[in-house]
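Need tokens for this chain, all 76 residues.
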Amino acid sequence: MIPNHVLNDLGPDDRVAVLSHRGGLRFVVHRVAESAVVIRADATRAGAEVLATHLSDKVAILELIAGRERDVGGEG
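Here are the structure tokens for all 76 residues:
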């Protein structure tokens, strides 16, 4: 589940990247101007896979997470 502060404290220039790491989801808040290439390179170095970057819509973020959790949990 995504921490509430990640969703609720996003500034106008903040975006969320969703990563898959060791069977779980991780969330990285980044600046809107940050390159997706840089985010992917950082994630790769950390052993994670980028599922999405530059997200700001709370509903879209929650839907992405819910879909991934169903996939991991075998439901749906």
